[in-house]
Design goal:
Distance between the termini: 40 Å
Low-confidence stretches: 381-406
CATH class: Mainly Alpha
Number of strands: 0
Number of helices: 20
Helix content: over 70%
Structural class: mainly alpha
Mean pLDDT: 80
Shape: globular
CATH architecture: Up-down Bundle
CATH topology: Na+/H+ antiporter like fold
Order of helices and strands: HHHHHHHHHHHHHHHHHHHH
Largest sheet: none
Length: about 400
């Protein structure tokens, strides 16, 4: 029995590495590689409980890393820019996704899941691509970071709403409002603790042993995840707040460095596990709506990016570049697809999976060829110096050295 487990697990890890390497050679995001590998293998050959457990850890670590990327001070300083820029993206993209779900005949609960997956861009794909393509100094990058910050905050609140509106036996408006109220209270308590107890947290995590640091930090993440579940919320909210708390200490960079390998491994298994949960035969019935939604999703991100970019003083090329950067969907959309499968909406899970696969590929290509696309769309005569574009350095959400750690 143990031999079969070791053999199967080893083969899966090797297959994940090979699939990821192939997609990297093709200059694509590795997330679709892991999902496609899971889709291509029969679910019955794996221990469902073990796969689900590891996938849950993957979700927790993903949201923990999202929390680590935040700075409460930066959020307070730039709250108006974040709200102004992020709200444009939300008001353009989310209603289109919701209307698409209702037009396809889904109920409000399933349509909400689709709208969330349709709206939120992939922080992982975008941040990694910006660093790899050395675009950190581009004027639109600061606006992108502001939008991603807004989306990550929205993600946490949206999960809380889903806890009352979707993940219950009797969904209701009152349940959704109660879920959001509990989330705000839970948020407030943890943020207050992170700010007021910062000196104590600094001392608590001040230890020479990296092993003990990982154990203590991991314990905090899992305990806050449990606390969120006990409050009737998603465990992902607790993990996000654990990252937010550690990000307020002097040990943020240490946590990022030590947890990065673990996060990568468990995230890969999470995407693989999601692929296992999808029956590829369901793709036949959803490929047409998936194709239509893909075109709409590209269009709304280009439109949202254009409006947000121009409102922040970017040139026409900068605004188009901003829209192209926001196309990719990824980790959070897959979390929502997993929720859809868990409540019996298998077809919706397959639809979101196809949508994410298409948009992650299109988005990666868009990021890769942004300079060529913008040069083709606009002549150099339309460009103006940065000083004349109204670009504001105050939009920076992160210090330069922190950007490198994204």
């Amino acid at each position: 029995m143990h031999g079969d487990f070791l053999l199967g697990s080893g083969l899966v890890l090797v297959a994940l590495a090979a699939a990821g390497l192939l997609f990297l050679r093709l200059r694509q995001s590795i997330i679709p590689a892991f999902i496609l590998l899971g889709v291509s293998l029969p679910h019955s050959r794996f221990d469902a409980h073990l796969v689900d457990t590891i996938a849950t850890v993957g979700v927790v670590l993903l949201l923990f890393f999202m929390g680590l990327e935040f700075s409460l001070g930066a959020l307070v300083r730039n709250r108006r820019q974040i709200l102004r820029t992020g709200s444009v993206d939300l008001l353009v993209a989310f209603p289109v996704g919701l209307a698409g779900g209702l037009a396809l005949g889904y109920g409000w609960d399933a349509a909400l899941l689709l709208a969330g997956a349709f709206y939120v861009s992939s922080s992982a794909i975008i941040a990694k691509s910006i660093i790899e393509m050395q675009r950190s100094a581009d004027p639109e990058t600061e606006v992108v970071l502001g939008i991603l910050v807004f989306e990550d905050i929205f993600v946490a609140l949206f999960l809380a709403i889903l806890s009352g509106a979707v993940l219950t036996t009797e969904p209701s408006l009152n349940g959704a409002l109660w879920g959001m109220g509990k989330a705000i209270l839970f948020f407030g308590a943890i943020v207050l603790l992170a700010v007021k107890a910062r000196p104590a947290l600094d001392r608590l995590f001040q230890m020479e042993s990296d092993d003990l640091f990982i154990l203590l930090s991991g314990g905090l993440v899992l305990l806050l995840s449990w606390g969120a579940l006990a409050a009737g919320l998603s465990e992902a909210i607790g993990a996000f707040l654990a990252g937010l708390a550690i990000a307020e200490t002097r040990h943020k960079e240490r946590a990022e460095q030590l947890f990065a390998p673990l996060q990568g491994v468990f995230a890969a298994i999470f995407f693989f596990a999601f692929g296992l949960s999808i029956d590829p035969r369901t793709f036949v019935s959803v490929w047409v709506p998936a194709a239509i939604l893909t075109v709409l999703a590209v269009a709304v991100k280009l439109g949202a990016g254009w409006v947000a970019g121009r409102r922040n003083g970017l040139s026409q090329r900068g605004a188009l570049s901003l829209g192209l950067t926001l196309i990719a969907r990824g980790e959070f959309s897959i979390i929502l697809a997993g929720i859809a499968v868990s409540i019996g909406q298998t077809e919706l899970g397959a639809l979101i999976a196809l949508l994410v696969l298409a948009l992650s590929l299109v988005g990666t290509v868009g990021l890769q060829y942004t300079p060529q696309i913008t040069r083709w769309a606009f002549s150099r005569k339309t460009e103006r110096p940065l000083a004349e574009q109204g670009f504001s350095p105050e939009l920076a959400m992160f210090e330069p050295e922190e950007k490198k750690s994204l």
